[in-house]
Here is the input.
Amino acid sequence: MKILISVVTALLTIVVTTSAQAFCGFYVARADTSLFNRASQVVLVRDGNRTVITMANDFEGKVADFAIVVPVPTRIEREQINIGDRAIVQHLDAYTSPRLVEYHDPDPCLRYDRMEMSQDSAALPKAGAELKRAARSQGVTIEASYTVGEYDILILSAAQSDGLIRWLNDNGYRIPRGAKGVVDSYLKQDMRFFVAKVNLEEQSKLGYQYLRPLQIAYESNKFMLPIRLGTLNAKGKQELYVYALTRTGRVETTNYRTVKLPTNTEVPEFVQGEFADFYRAMFDKQTRAENGRAVFLEYAWDMAWCDPCAADPLSARELRKLGVFWVGGDNSRTSKIAPAPAQNVFVTRLHVRYDREHFPEDLVFQETGDRQNYQGRYVIRHPWKGATSCDATEYQAGVRDRQEREAQQLANLTGWNIDDIRAKIQFAGGEPPPPRKEPWWKRLWG
Amino acid sequence: MKAISRQLDRFKDPRHYQIAVLTSLVCFGVVVLDFGIHWQNAVAIVATALAVQLLGTIYAHLPRFDPLSPLITSLSLTLLLRTDEVALAAVAAAIAIGSKFLIRFRGKHVFNPANLALVTLMLASDQAWVSSGQWGSAAIGAFTLACLGFLVLTRARRAETTIAFLLIYATLLFGRALWLGDPLAIPLHQLQNGALLIFAFFMISDPKTTPNSAAGRVLFATVVAAIAFTIQFIFYEPNGPILALIISAPTVPLIDMLMRGRIYRWKRPAARAGNQVKGVYR
Here is the structure.
């Protein structure tokens, strides 16, 4: 049946789908995760019920204060835990970031057919035995304890949340108020708690100045990310990036709306200098437009290529280190220009700003069959600034119209004041286009 | 208001309302929500469904070609099925309508057409899926959907399947939340799901694939809700309700056999098996 459907599909799609247009333009800037404070990054590798999760965070402060508590669906053996490479997560971030590309207008006086490209297509400090005894007296079972890299890790289960929370607090894990209900809920759902602290001795031996990502591999039907403990902190909204690496296609949330950010939009030239502000403002506006309840898609692409590339695609070796168990571990570099033989890795980058009010439930995901490429791509077009040997009045009028259009699009995307935007634009010929008659209601409610 | 209801009364067949509501849902989904419905898929689904219905009409020697039922199936499929392959969308429509003519028992077709097509494609191909979260959970949207759906149901006089399903499913969700100690915002959020409501109001409510007696329909809805909950919250698999309906479908003839005597007591002559053979294939 499966084969039959694939064959029929292949035959019919030749007739039905239009030819895909390549994106084009030169890559100039990207909006990576460093734009937002307190951003956590999670890489989720998923195929069938096998999951490898890599957790990276931008923890700033004394490493002695660092502790994480993560609900996990199964018991975790030592071999299921690994310390990841922060550089690979950063590479994945760069590769999938929303990007700014630029075009330069050609000399308007040169007589040749302009080849326009389509814009639209586009450590256990105490002795182990003593710790276990103390834990048991509070109803907490230490299922396992490991020291991996610079981390001391415990896998805990408990009959009641009270004992677990007391135990965690006694052992230096600051559990926020109100955690009891959430911890209880996870325990009843048969989840374990993966808790980790930094082993200072190991850390100084290893000599890393920062904390490396923790990786866990497990098998479970639950394709989800527990965010409820995180929403208990009274720090306000939190930023989370999820990079899903799958075999079949794009990943989306099943219990929240997954929304594509506006893309392939022309914006004024000055955005090049303030791309970070632009992206933050746009993300804020889109979040508000969805009432703060949506998960945003920032990138969905076959890992074999990119166009334009904000960074090279990840190599098979890097993917393997992230836990993509179905790719070979050789060092072959993937092509970044044309679709190479598929590596069967599809990357989805999701960006979510969450708090308890708007995201009451954990994020639940599903893998879809959608392999359509999507990227956050914003375009600037530089007017011709060289000398002209002919009357370029018409060209300049065209550019001014385009600049006005770009100003309006930018105002729409970011909510910035249109007059402030216009003031920053160097209109062709030195003057802005003549003001158009606006309907009286256009500025009625700002 | 009276004038409107008089106008509405002109349509004798409740399926007109269903088509109107489903069409506006498709438009709302495409224009407001932009949730990935390709118009090519919609065209392929409608065209294939009508063509297969025509073939089936000839094959089964039916007195006349009826476009309404395949249209309703097409619109349900358009709303729920996602695929990048137009051909798969057409295959789905062919399976849906074809099954009405081929998989029959005692004068009724066994599976809900759109449901069978969705499940077949999801299991047979990794390129078809159901985007259950894409409706968002704005309470007001859910409320509107529910009201629109209810209108359809009261016209169709088969509201008990939907009401029973939603009540049992909601009870299970709230029960789970109470047991876990979760805030009630969680089950409420789980219920404000567009795909769940579309399922409840437009799929499980299909009078042709639910038991003949009202008590039988309530029993059937209970079975579907319990299986859906089990799939979703015990096995942690997505699309619980859609899978539950297909699993429960074979129990319909059984329920009909056990509860046959009640048909007359509920005074629903239209539900007699003899009438249904000649009735509209849906």
Chain A touches chain B through 44 residues (CB under 8 Å).
